[in-house]
Design goal:
The complex is a heterotrimer of chains A (about 250), B (about 210) and C (about 240).
Chain A lengths: L32 H18 L1 H4 L1 H16 L4 H24 L4 H6 L1 H6 L5 H30 L7 H25 L7 H27 L5 H30 L1
Helix pairs in contact in A: 1-7, 3-4, 3-7, 4-7, 4-8, 4-9, 7-8, 7-10, 8-9, 8-10, 9-10
Chain B lengths: L5 E10 L2 E11 L4 E5 L6 H9 L6 E6 L2 E2 L4 H6 L1 E4 L11 H10 L6 H10 L15 H15 L3 E5 L7 H16 L3 E6 L10 E5 L3
Parallel strand pairs in B: 3-8, 3-9, 6-7, 7-8
Antiparallel strand pairs in B: 1-2, 1-4, 4-5
Chain C lengths: L3 H6 L2 H33 L13 H28 L2 H33 L7 H22 L3 H33 L14 H33 L4 H8 L1
Classes of the chains: A mainly alpha (about 250), B alpha/beta (about 210), C mainly alpha (about 240).
Chain lengths: ~250, ~210, ~240
């Protein structure tokens, strides 16, 4: 076994021809956490718009899933209307799952995630910014698309605002939960199935409350209770999920 | 400002069953550069990542200005710049945009500073092209511009001169020299050694 | 001084020796309790006035369900300890808990289905308890899947620890939402035996079985833990002494 060798110990500052000049303070004040998060958000949005073709993939998937049910079950609108809450939410859940796989993938691959962890800024805040960007690019468009899918399943127009609200709020939590799963499975090859296995059980409450809110909206009944529960989940997710995702990211960088 | 020092005391690290870092011990003062040498697999990258605080050693400590970095890891990170093998650039953004985000997340950056840094590394001619269109050497220059822009006292560079031509190697040497002249510190993991124009150099050999 | 026991617990050779010594102290009482509980429950206790003899499966179903949840909580606590204080043995404990907990969950599901069949006519109903157990099974499978998917043991430990903690926070939320969902749709549930009205003759064997299952879990955990520690420390020198002894 070759012997170990170390450098010498305390190096006295050797005066060379290069005299140290000014103190090495940062040239400008450090950015605060809000500014850092804002830039992280803008970066992800700008990146997404450079690859616009990829933006519609989750939406196209959602539309496809919705289309499957009339073909597989029956074209009768009355039957489809009964299934509509389930179809919409399962579709939204799966589309969100599909999209979240790529939340950290590229950043982990090209080293920018590592730079986030070494930025001296709160990694939790940066994770939240990334997840928010992700929601703006997938969950929010899904919420806007949901009315179209609902109409195709025989839902009356009066129910649409309630559906948009439910999907918009619920998809926030789905993105947050998905970010935890995506961070945990970083670096695992072919992790799609594992990601689903991790994320879906945790997303069940959103599915339950969201489908219930949609069902009430379709029947014209007030949907306050499940909507408030959805909002509560979103708030809980916002406070806890970025923390867990940051911890998972640090673990993947070890 | 207190004398900035980086001290590493008796670092031990295992990767699985492999004893990668075996009692690494050194101290680095202002204006000094440490060259970490070793064959592939000897733990150069692991050492740098442990210094950053990304990896947790089984034994030993890293001290920044006399304090254990674990006490305030974020403050330590705010004082260091780490450059891995691959430049941390998004291929769909231009060089300028990349630096705008990378540096902006850490500190306020003016457009003039950005342009000056790009000029220093000779990247002005291609800074408005998407990074995916740049060669490896060009990307490395942009990354070096970023490191210089961060304006932090400690640089941790992993293989900064590998795969660079003579001009590129001199650029790296020049940037390191400027950093040392400012009173900064550089720890560089190298395969073949830094260019001889870098002064105040100490070597640390890692056995495989 | 008082922390030495804590530090010793973090030492793999010590834990291995401790686990070896303690296992029989849990295994034998577990066997006794379970046999006693089964005897009392299956033979001595009177049949339920409503369900006849079919209810007796509760003596396996209820402890299994209870253990499935208790083991998950234990796993999450061990994982959290390993995560926060970086104690590798704690991660070994969590890893050992997972298959045991998954088995209890599976047993609860199977016995629940067997119980339900004479009552409902079908082997499955979406009652809140069974549905929650099913979700718990997926949580276990996810945990084990994540561990299996990451090659580096240390990283697998830490990532699955985060998952376990996230899971344990979610379990009450999931349970609440499933119960809420179920109450909307009024699915039948036969799992509710009136607890205050449960006669002592039924309660005693149930508690015996619960105690027996808990002791059984600890015995199993200690056995698995020994294997887990051996596996993780296989390159260490103290292993050779243990194996040759």
């Amino acid at each position: 076994m070759s012997p170990e060798s170390h450098a010498g110990h305390a190096l006295a500052p050797v005066r060379t021809s290069l005299e140290p000049t000014a103190e090495t303070a940062p040239a400008a004040p450090a950015a605060d956490a809000f500014e850092a998060a804002r830039l992280a958000l803008l970066r992800d949005l700008q990146l997404a718009f450079r690859k616009r073709s990829q933006l519609i993939q989750p939406l196209a998937f959602f539309a496809m899933v919705t289309l499957l049910f009339p073909l597989a079950v029956s074209p009768e609108l009355s039957r489809l209307r009964e299934l509509a809450p389930g179809v919409l939410w399962v579709g939204a859940l799966l589309a969100s799952l599909l999209a979240v796989e790529f939340l950290f993938r590229d950043d982990a691959y090209d080293g920018t995630l590592e730079q986030y962890a070494l930025s001296g800024q709160s990694l939790t805040a940066l994770m939240f910014a990334k997840t928010l960007a992700h929601w703006l690019l997938t969950g929010f468009p899904l919420a806007l698309m949901a009315p179209l899918a609902a109409l195709s399943l025989g839902v009356s127009a009066s129910a649409l605002p309630g559906i948009v609200a439910a999907v918009a709020v619920g998809s926030v939590t789905l993105s947050l939960i998905g970010s935890i799963g995506a961070a945990l499975t970083l670096g695992i090859k072919r992790s799609g199935a594992l990601l689903s296995l991790l994320t879906l059980p945790l997303s069940l409450p959103v599915l339950i409350f969201g489908a219930r809110a949609t069902e009430l909206a379709i029947h014209g009944a007030p949907a306050h209770a499940p909507l408030e529960l959805l909002a509560a989940l979103a708030v809980l997710g916002t406070t806890l999920a970025p923390l867990a995702a940051a911890a998972a990211v640090r673990i993947s960088l070890e | 400002m207190a004398d900035q020092t980086l001290e590493v005391e008796n670092l031990h690290l295992w990767r699985g069953e492999h004893h990668v870092l075996r009692g690494v011990h050194f101290a680095l003062a202002r204006g000094a550069c440490l060259e970490v040498c070793g064959a592939n697999g000897s733990g150069k990258t692991t050492l740098l990542r442990t210094l950053c605080g990304l990896i947790y050693p089984e034994d030993g400590r890293v001290l920044w200005n006399g304090e254990n970095v674990r006490r305030d890891l974020r403050a330590f990170h705010a004082a260091l710049a780490y450059l891995g093998h691959e430049p941390p650039l998004k291929s769909d953004l231009t060089a300028r945009e990349n630096l705008h985000y990378w540096i902006g997340i850490r500190r306020q950056l003016s457009a003039e500073e950005l342009t000056a840094a790009l000029a220093r590394v000779g990247a002005l001619s291609f800074c408005e092209r998407q990074v995916r269109t740049l060669s490896a050497g060009q990307r490395r220059r942009v990354a070096l511009a970023g490191i210089a822009l961060l304006a932090v006292p400690l640089w941790l560079l992993d293989e900064p001169v590998t795969n660079l031509d003579a001009e590129g190697r001199e650029l790296v040497a020049g940037l390191i020299g400027e950093q040392l002249a400012r009173g900064g510190m550089v720890v560089a993991a190298v395969h073949q050694g830094l260019p001889p124009s870098v002064r105040n150099l100490t070597r640390l050999e890692l056995a495989a | 001084m008082t922390w030495t026991w804590f530090h010793r617990l973090a030492s793999p050779p010590y834990v291995y020796a401790l686990a070896t010594r303690l296992t029989p102290w849990f295994a034998w009482p577990a066997a006794l309790c379970i046999l006693a509980g089964l005897w009392e429950g299956l033979v001595l206790a009177p049949p339920d006035y409503q369900q006849g003899d079919g209810f007796r499966i509760i003596y396996v179903h209820a402890p299994s369900a209870w253990m499935s949840l208790m083991v998950y909580t234990t796993m999450a606590i061990a994982a959290a300890v390993g995560l926060i204080w970086r104690i590798k043995v704690a991660h070994a404990v969590a890893a050992s808990c997972a298959p045991i907990g998954a088995s209890f969950t599976f047993a609860a599901l199977v016995t629940g289905a067997l119980w339900g069949e004479p009552m409902w006519g079908t082997y499955w109903q979406w009652d809140p308890r069974l549905t929650s157990e099913l979700v718990l099974l997926f949580l276990y499978l996810g945990y084990m899947g994540l561990r299996a998917g990451i090659e580096d043991t240390q990283r697998a430990d830490r990532a699955s620890a985060v998952l376990a903690v996230v899971g344990v926070v979610n379990v009450p939320i999931i349970h609440y939402s499933v119960t809420w969902w179920n109450s909307l749709h009024q699915a039948p549930s036969v799992m509710r035996l009136a607890k205050p009205a449960m006669p002592l003759a039924m309660l005693v064997p149930l508690l015996l079985m619960l105690l027996g299952f808990t002791l059984f879990f600890v015995a199993l955990l200690l056995t698995r833990l020994r294997g887990e520690v051996l596996q993780r420390e296989r390159a260490a020198s103290w292993i050779r002494e243990v194996v040759s002894a």
